[in-house]
Amino acid sequence: MTPRRPAVPGAPPAPARVLTVRSADGAPLHVEVHGPEGDRRAPAVVLVHGWTCSTAFWAAQIRALAADHRVIAYDQRGHGRSPAHPACGTGALADDLEAVLEATLAPGERAVIAGHSMGGMTVMAAADRPALRARAAAVLLCSTGSSRLVASAKVLPLRAGRARTWLTRRILLSRAPLGPVTPLSLRVLKYGITGPGSAPHVVEACARIVHACPRAVRHAWARVLDRVELEDGVRRLPVPTEVLVGASDRLTPPLHARALAAALPHCLGVTELPGIGHMTPVEAPEQVTGRIRALAATHLPAGARTSAGVPTSAVHAEESA
């Protein structure tokens, strides 16, 4: 049975269209399209969530942008409503993004792509892919990194070194169930993934999304993140790219954002948000939405947009009930 999207505070509105998109290896992906489907003036935005999350993670961005943008969001394989698949790796992530771009964008249409955490790594992994090069007008990388993720994580209050890395790996790769959302689990999650001043409803929203991820999926993708090496992809990302990170991010600390900014061939700048943790789109929705909107306004001028709405390949996209 396909997992159901978790009900969270501030969940996104019902999509205008739901698709099942087949990736290169046949993996089915749950894809949602929000906003004005047939409006030539509506720029396209593609949202790619991170590890243990789902399309619900982008609720604030979908609600804010769908009035005048065509917003495409999909569940990474094994997450949300996309069933688990035995193939796990950065190549599979790149395949999935390519499939979604080709299935949801009209011929010649380009989009702004925003990737958070593993979603940002998805974009880096797809840097050389024809679909990304043809379809991406600009990119926003939120709270992400290209390598050495476990060694640099600060989820434990220990000095950097082999002991911290070993313990962090044991925690992040744990197969233990997260269980129900409780006051204790909220305190633990707040320390690990959100900023110190995060409001209770923000922490709860993040917790309900993360706890909904099946533990086998969480473990499988943690193993992928443990060995991520995408620095070559960063150097080859061909489009204007902006980098954003929370200054209090413990999972992908700002050192990653600075390294990305230094390596990107077309970096538009890096922004560090004071007091914000790893879950930037939920913790700082106005800032993240504003950056996406500005990128669309700058890099998707109205005269360059094509009509939207019809999948480019009926072989790979099916309407879902």
From TrEMBL:
GO MF annotation, one: hydrolase activity
SUPFAM superfamilies reported in the protein's UniProt record: alpha/beta-Hydrolases (SSF53474)
Gene3D superfamilies for the chain: alpha/beta hydrolase
InterPro entries, per the entry: AB_hydrolase_1 (IPR000073), AB_hydrolase_fold (IPR029058), AB_hydrolase_sf (IPR050266)
Keywords: Hydrolase
Domain AB hydrolase-1: 45-288
Descriptive protein name: Alpha/beta hydrolase
Annotated organism of origin: Streptomyces leeuwenhoekii
